[in-house]
Amino acid sequence: MPHPKGGYKLKDGTRVPGTTTIIGRFKESGGLLYWACEQGKAIERGEISSLYDKRYEAAEAGTLAHSIVEAHINGEGWDISLYPQEIQDQATQAFEAYLTWERMTKLEIIEQEMELVSETYRFGGCPDAIGKIDGKLCMVDWKTSNSVYQDYLIQLAAYKQLWEENYPGRPLEGFHLCRFSKTSGDFAHHYYSELDDAWEQFKLFRKAYDLDRKLKKRV
Length: 219
Fold this sequence. Notes:
It is a single chain. By secondary structure, the protein is of the alpha+beta class. The protein has a single domain, classed as 3-Layer(aba) Sandwich (Trna Endonuclease, Chain: A, domain 1). Helices cover 46% and strands 19% of the residues. The protein has helices at 19-25, 30-44, 55-73, 85-105, 150-166, 196-216, and strands at 8-9, 15-16, 108-112, 116-118, 123-125, 129-133, 136-144, 175-180, 187-192. A five-stranded mixed sheet has the order 3-6-7-8-9. A two-stranded antiparallel ribbon has the order 1-2. A two-stranded antiparallel ribbon has the order 4-5. The two termini are 34 Å apart.
Protein backbone atom coordinates (compact mmCIF):
# COMPACT_ATOMS: atom_id res chain seq x y z
CA MET A 1 0.00 0.00 0.00
CA PRO A 2 1.61 3.32 -1.06
CA HIS A 3 2.03 6.29 1.25
CA PRO A 4 2.73 9.93 0.34
CA LYS A 5 6.48 10.61 0.22
CA GLY A 6 6.05 13.73 2.32
CA GLY A 7 3.57 12.11 4.68
CA TYR A 8 -0.07 13.06 5.15
CA LYS A 9 -0.79 16.78 5.43
CA LEU A 10 -3.77 18.94 6.28
CA LYS A 11 -4.85 21.74 3.97
CA ASP A 12 -2.69 24.20 5.91
CA GLY A 13 0.39 22.00 5.41
CA THR A 14 0.47 20.50 8.91
CA ARG A 15 1.75 16.93 8.90
CA VAL A 16 -0.48 14.34 10.55
CA PRO A 17 0.05 10.63 11.33
CA GLY A 18 -1.24 7.83 9.16
CA THR A 19 -3.88 5.33 10.21
CA THR A 20 -1.46 2.40 10.49
CA THR A 21 1.04 4.52 12.45
CA ILE A 22 -1.60 5.39 15.04
CA ILE A 23 -2.92 1.85 15.36
CA GLY A 24 0.58 0.35 15.36
CA ARG A 25 1.58 2.42 18.38
CA PHE A 26 -0.99 0.57 20.49
CA LYS A 27 -1.04 -2.76 18.69
CA GLU A 28 -1.35 -5.89 20.82
CA SER A 29 1.94 -7.81 20.59
CA GLY A 30 0.81 -11.21 21.88
CA GLY A 31 0.80 -12.82 18.44
CA LEU A 32 4.30 -11.57 17.69
CA LEU A 33 5.62 -12.83 21.02
CA TYR A 34 4.05 -16.25 20.42
CA TRP A 35 5.61 -16.41 16.96
CA ALA A 36 9.04 -15.49 18.33
CA CYS A 37 8.71 -18.16 21.03
CA GLU A 38 7.82 -20.82 18.47
CA GLN A 39 10.72 -19.77 16.24
CA GLY A 40 13.06 -20.03 19.24
CA LYS A 41 11.90 -23.58 19.88
CA ALA A 42 12.49 -24.44 16.23
CA ILE A 43 16.05 -23.10 16.47
CA GLU A 44 16.68 -25.27 19.54
CA ARG A 45 15.41 -28.31 17.63
CA GLY A 46 17.76 -27.51 14.77
CA GLU A 47 14.93 -27.01 12.29
CA ILE A 48 15.99 -23.45 11.40
CA SER A 49 19.20 -21.48 11.91
CA SER A 50 17.85 -18.02 12.74
CA LEU A 51 14.74 -16.26 13.99
CA TYR A 52 13.49 -15.22 10.53
CA ASP A 53 14.30 -18.36 8.54
CA LYS A 54 10.68 -19.41 7.98
CA ARG A 55 8.99 -16.07 8.33
CA TYR A 56 9.31 -15.01 4.72
CA GLU A 57 9.03 -18.53 3.33
CA ALA A 58 5.68 -18.95 5.08
CA ALA A 59 4.41 -15.66 3.72
CA GLU A 60 5.18 -16.41 0.07
CA ALA A 61 1.99 -18.21 -0.97
CA GLY A 62 -0.37 -15.63 0.53
CA THR A 63 1.72 -12.67 -0.59
CA LEU A 64 1.93 -14.04 -4.12
CA ALA A 65 -1.84 -14.60 -4.27
CA HIS A 66 -2.37 -11.04 -3.05
CA SER A 67 -0.04 -9.72 -5.77
CA ILE A 68 -1.87 -11.68 -8.47
CA VAL A 69 -5.21 -10.23 -7.37
CA GLU A 70 -3.80 -6.69 -7.50
CA ALA A 71 -2.44 -7.31 -11.01
CA HIS A 72 -5.81 -8.75 -12.06
CA ILE A 73 -7.72 -5.73 -10.76
CA ASN A 74 -5.31 -3.34 -12.47
CA GLY A 75 -5.51 -5.24 -15.75
CA GLU A 76 -1.83 -6.12 -15.60
CA GLY A 77 -0.08 -9.38 -16.41
CA TRP A 78 1.88 -11.47 -13.92
CA ASP A 79 4.63 -14.07 -13.98
CA ILE A 80 4.98 -16.52 -11.09
CA SER A 81 7.33 -18.97 -12.81
CA LEU A 82 10.28 -18.07 -10.57
CA TYR A 83 8.49 -19.34 -7.46
CA PRO A 84 8.66 -22.99 -6.29
CA GLN A 85 5.91 -25.13 -7.83
CA GLU A 86 4.19 -25.68 -4.48
CA ILE A 87 3.97 -21.93 -3.89
CA GLN A 88 2.67 -21.39 -7.42
CA ASP A 89 -0.04 -24.02 -6.92
CA GLN A 90 -1.15 -22.59 -3.57
CA ALA A 91 -1.23 -19.01 -4.84
CA THR A 92 -3.12 -20.01 -7.98
CA GLN A 93 -5.67 -21.92 -5.92
CA ALA A 94 -6.20 -18.89 -3.70
CA PHE A 95 -6.56 -16.59 -6.71
CA GLU A 96 -9.14 -18.89 -8.29
CA ALA A 97 -11.11 -18.90 -5.03
CA TYR A 98 -11.00 -15.11 -5.03
CA LEU A 99 -12.22 -15.02 -8.65
CA THR A 100 -15.16 -17.24 -7.70
CA TRP A 101 -16.12 -14.77 -4.95
CA GLU A 102 -15.63 -11.82 -7.30
CA ARG A 103 -17.93 -13.39 -9.92
CA MET A 104 -20.57 -14.33 -7.34
CA THR A 105 -20.72 -10.81 -5.92
CA LYS A 106 -20.22 -9.08 -9.30
CA LEU A 107 -17.74 -6.80 -7.55
CA GLU A 108 -16.96 -3.60 -9.41
CA ILE A 109 -13.92 -1.61 -8.25
CA ILE A 110 -14.69 2.12 -8.27
CA GLU A 111 -11.61 3.67 -6.63
CA GLN A 112 -8.22 2.31 -5.52
CA GLU A 113 -5.54 3.33 -3.02
CA MET A 114 -6.64 6.93 -2.51
CA GLU A 115 -4.51 9.16 -0.28
CA LEU A 116 -7.07 10.73 2.05
CA VAL A 117 -6.80 13.07 5.04
CA SER A 118 -9.27 13.87 7.81
CA GLU A 119 -9.27 17.56 8.72
CA THR A 120 -11.64 16.80 11.60
CA TYR A 121 -9.60 14.07 13.32
CA ARG A 122 -6.20 15.02 11.86
CA PHE A 123 -4.95 11.77 10.36
CA GLY A 124 -4.43 10.25 6.93
CA GLY A 125 -4.78 6.88 5.26
CA CYS A 126 -4.86 4.97 2.01
CA PRO A 127 -7.79 2.50 1.68
CA ASP A 128 -7.21 -0.45 -0.65
CA ALA A 129 -10.38 0.04 -2.67
CA ILE A 130 -13.93 1.29 -2.84
CA GLY A 131 -16.21 -1.05 -4.72
CA LYS A 132 -19.81 -1.66 -5.62
CA ILE A 133 -21.74 -4.86 -4.90
CA ASP A 134 -25.46 -5.18 -5.63
CA GLY A 135 -25.52 -1.48 -6.42
CA LYS A 136 -24.20 -0.57 -2.97
CA LEU A 137 -20.96 1.27 -2.37
CA CYS A 138 -18.63 -0.62 -0.02
CA MET A 139 -15.05 -0.80 1.18
CA VAL A 140 -12.83 -3.68 0.03
CA ASP A 141 -9.56 -4.54 1.74
CA TRP A 142 -7.01 -7.30 1.11
CA LYS A 143 -4.88 -8.83 3.86
CA THR A 144 -2.20 -11.53 3.96
CA SER A 145 -2.38 -13.20 7.37
CA ASN A 146 -3.36 -16.43 9.10
CA SER A 147 -6.22 -14.81 10.99
CA VAL A 148 -8.35 -11.68 11.26
CA TYR A 149 -7.14 -9.29 13.94
CA GLN A 150 -8.87 -6.46 15.79
CA ASP A 151 -6.60 -3.84 14.28
CA TYR A 152 -7.90 -4.76 10.81
CA LEU A 153 -11.41 -3.72 11.85
CA ILE A 154 -10.14 -0.55 13.51
CA GLN A 155 -8.24 0.32 10.34
CA LEU A 156 -11.31 -0.23 8.15
CA ALA A 157 -13.42 1.96 10.44
CA ALA A 158 -10.83 4.75 10.22
CA TYR A 159 -10.76 4.44 6.44
CA LYS A 160 -14.55 4.78 6.38
CA GLN A 161 -14.24 8.11 8.18
CA LEU A 162 -11.60 9.25 5.70
CA TRP A 163 -13.75 8.32 2.72
CA GLU A 164 -17.04 9.75 3.97
CA GLU A 165 -15.43 12.96 5.22
CA ASN A 166 -13.93 13.55 1.77
CA TYR A 167 -16.94 12.21 -0.16
CA PRO A 168 -19.93 13.04 2.08
CA GLY A 169 -22.42 12.37 -0.69
CA ARG A 170 -21.20 8.80 -1.23
CA PRO A 171 -21.76 6.85 2.02
CA LEU A 172 -20.47 3.29 2.36
CA GLU A 173 -22.68 0.28 3.07
CA GLY A 174 -20.50 -2.46 4.49
CA PHE A 175 -16.93 -3.70 4.57
CA HIS A 176 -15.48 -6.68 2.69
CA LEU A 177 -12.21 -8.08 4.06
CA CYS A 178 -10.50 -10.53 1.68
CA ARG A 179 -7.83 -12.56 3.45
CA PHE A 180 -5.09 -14.80 2.03
CA SER A 181 -3.43 -17.24 4.42
CA LYS A 182 0.31 -16.75 4.80
CA THR A 183 1.12 -20.43 5.10
CA SER A 184 -1.12 -21.89 2.40
CA GLY A 185 -2.58 -19.04 0.37
CA ASP A 186 -6.12 -20.12 1.30
CA PHE A 187 -8.73 -17.44 0.57
CA ALA A 188 -11.42 -16.29 3.00
CA HIS A 189 -13.99 -13.51 2.80
CA HIS A 190 -15.28 -11.62 5.85
CA TYR A 191 -18.15 -9.15 5.73
CA TYR A 192 -19.04 -6.48 8.31
CA SER A 193 -22.18 -4.39 7.97
CA GLU A 194 -20.92 -1.78 10.45
CA LEU A 195 -17.84 -1.12 12.59
CA ASP A 196 -19.07 1.52 15.02
CA ASP A 197 -17.22 0.06 18.02
CA ALA A 198 -14.01 -0.12 15.99
CA TRP A 199 -14.37 3.57 15.10
CA GLU A 200 -14.81 4.48 18.77
CA GLN A 201 -11.63 2.53 19.50
CA PHE A 202 -9.72 4.40 16.79
CA LYS A 203 -10.81 7.77 18.17
CA LEU A 204 -9.37 6.75 21.54
CA PHE A 205 -6.15 5.68 19.84
CA ARG A 206 -5.98 9.00 18.00
CA LYS A 207 -6.29 10.96 21.23
CA ALA A 208 -3.84 8.66 23.04
CA TYR A 209 -1.33 9.07 20.19
CA ASP A 210 -1.08 12.82 20.82
CA LEU A 211 -0.92 12.33 24.58
CA ASP A 212 1.81 9.74 24.14
CA ARG A 213 3.93 12.20 22.15
CA LYS A 214 3.51 14.84 24.85
CA LEU A 215 4.55 12.38 27.56
CA LYS A 216 7.67 11.37 25.62
CA LYS A 217 8.85 14.97 25.77
CA ARG A 218 8.72 14.82 29.56
CA VAL A 219 10.98 11.79 30.03
